[in-house]
Structure formats: C-alpha cells, structure tokens
C-alpha cells in the first residue's frame, strides 16, 4: 500500500469501542444510519456522541465538515470515516452499498489512521478584546461585510501586497478540491503540510496590484491579513460564516492539530481526484 501521508499508524482490531454517527438527515441517510447503529450495537459497540473513538459521517462532504466542527475539540481521540449517500465525496468515500463491508471492517479488522493537515486561523481584536482561534478542514474565506475587501496581506510579518477585491481564500490540501479549485487554485496532495492562498476577484489595474497567482505556504510560514480602513470582516470557516468587528489582524497558518481518518482500505488521493473530476 502506498504511503498516503507522512503520518500513518496502524490500529489493531478491537480498539474502537465508542462510536457516533453524523447524519445529513434525509430519509436515505437516516435508514443507513439505523442500519450501521444496529449492526455495531449487536457487536457491543457503544453509541457515545460526546466522546466517540470513531465518527461515521453519513451524507456528503458537507456532513463530514459538520462532524469535524462538532468534534474539533477532541481531534486526537477521534477518527472519522465517511459514507456518501449522493455523489462520490472527498471525505465521504464509502458508498451506501458498501456499508455492510465497512461495518464488518470496523468490527473485525485493523485499520490505518491517516492524518491530514488543517488550517489554523487566529483573530486579534482592538480594545484588548480576547483573541479567538479556529480550525478549518476545507478553508477560511475573508470578505468585507459590505462589498469590497480592502486589506494588507503580510507574509511572515512583512508586507506582501495590498488587496482589493471580493475576498481571500485560505485552504488546506484536502480543501484544495473544494472552493479553492473554483478559484483556479492548485490541487495539493495532503501529505504536503501547507496552506494555499487564492484571490477572489481581485482588482488589478495601474493603481492596485496583487500577485494574481495562488500562493502555497509551508508549515513554518504565517500569513496575516490587516484591515486598511474597515475593521469589520466576514469570515467563513468551511460551511460556517460570521461577522467579526474591531479586527486588528487575522493570521493564517498550518495548524498543529490534524484530522485523523480511519482507513480500512487504500483509496489514494489522486484516484479520488480522478474519479470525482474526470470520471
Ligand atoms: P455545499 O454547498 O453542499 O458544498 C458545495 C460542494 O462542495 C458540494 O458538492 C460538496 O460536496 C463539495 N465539497 C465540500 N468539501 C469538498 C472537498 N474537500 N473537495 C471537493 N468537494 C467538496 O456546502 P457544504 O457541503 O456545506 O460544503 C461547504 C464547502 O462548500 C465549503 O467549505 C467550500 O469549500 C464549498 N464552497 C464552494 C464554493 C465554490 O466553489 N464557488 C462556494 C462556496 C462554498 P457534498 O455535496 O458531498 O457535500
Ligand atoms: Mn453539501
């Protein structure tokens, strides 16, 4: 089996005891959820949606994003696996028909844990308001809450460019196939501990200039976004969006935390890219 990421550990059978199921909520996903629940319960697995060892996401990639944010405070103790009830997903890579096989694997087989990088976002405020930090699995976008975003972009504390446009998108390698791809960003293999910065409709003319190309930053580089006039920003973390006022700076970098996926069989990243986008 090809090494998918830098960090892959083997977990012997029987180590998972507590599970939870995140569900999209449609009737098909609901039925699948009951089926998984019953089969695992029969085999003495305990449903525990507060402290699960394994979180099974049934739905789409969006369902896995929800599951990730629900358990973001205990990533070291939680492994994720995704079943898709729609089209093939990047995080949800088991089909509904394969669910019995997945359950048998959970019960009886050892598995590998693969770890993927996350995006760390920290927001500092003026007036000594307590800073906040967040994790994203796909990306974080920065927009103005009223139209044009005007902000300075710094890399490692040094001014890089003045940005004017709709917004900026900072994505993880596994998020590179999501919004980032729509912004003509590169698809990044998740073994590369990195984040990618892409522009959302920048203004470029004789007065305003940005680099225009996506930038890929390594683990030890941080990127800061600083307000120029307006200190109010809309930050979206994956599917969640919120306005932040009185912002002093927003810093982006590769997070120390990682998301852990339970891999019961190999499904290489480039094969997922091919199957999703080329067919
Ligand atoms: P959604 O509107 O259902 O998501 C849009 C699509 O992105 C869905 O088809 C979703 O798959 C897919 N997707 C999510 N993560 C992906 C990944 N890592 N690689 C490839 N495709 C991925 O909303 P959602 O399901 O809550 O997902 C939120 C994500 O939507 C955001 O994180 C952002 O990446 C993406 N988005 C994209 C655009 C754009 O491309 N213009 C704009 C806004 C948001 P499922 O159908 O399996 O859920
Ligand atoms: Mn979705």
Keywords:
disordered N terminus, NAD+ kinase activity, 279 residues, EC 2.7.1.23, alpha+beta, elongated, twelve-stranded antiparallel beta sheet, binds NADP nicotinamide-adenine-dinucleotide phosphate, NAD kinase, Tumour Suppressor Smad4, 17 strands, binds manganese (II) ion, 5 helices, Rossmann fold
Net shape:
elongated
| Named CATH architecture of the largest domain | Sandwich
The residue-averaged pLDDT reads: 94
Q: Specify the biggest β-sheet.
A: 12 strands, antiparallel
Highest CATH level, the class of the largest domain:
Mainly Beta
> Number of domains in the coordinates?
2
Q: Structural class given helices, strands, pairing? A: alpha+beta
Describe the structure.
This protein has 279 residues and is of the alpha+beta class. The protein has two domains: 117 residues, 3-Layer(aba) Sandwich (Rossmann fold), CATH 3.40.50.10330; 138 residues, Probable inorganic polyphosphate/atp-NAD kinase, domain 2 (Tumour Suppressor Smad4). Helices cover 18% and strands 43% of the residues. The chain contains five helices and 17 strands. Strands 1, 7, 8, 9, 10, 11, 12, 13, 14, 15, 16 and 17 form a twelve-stranded antiparallel β-sheet that branches. It has a five-stranded parallel β-sheet with strand order 3-2-4-5-6, sandwiched between helices. The longest helix has 16 residues. The protein is elongated and about 65 Å long. Manganese (II) ion binds next to loops. The site of manganese (II) ion has 2 residues, from loops. Its EC number is 2.7.1.23. InterPro entries: ATP-NAD_kinase_N, ATP-NAD_kinase_PpnK-typ_C, NAD/diacylglycerol_kinase_sf, NADK. Its main location: cytoplasm. GO terms for molecular function: ATP binding; metal ion binding; NAD binding; NAD+ kinase activity. It is found in: Cytoplasm.
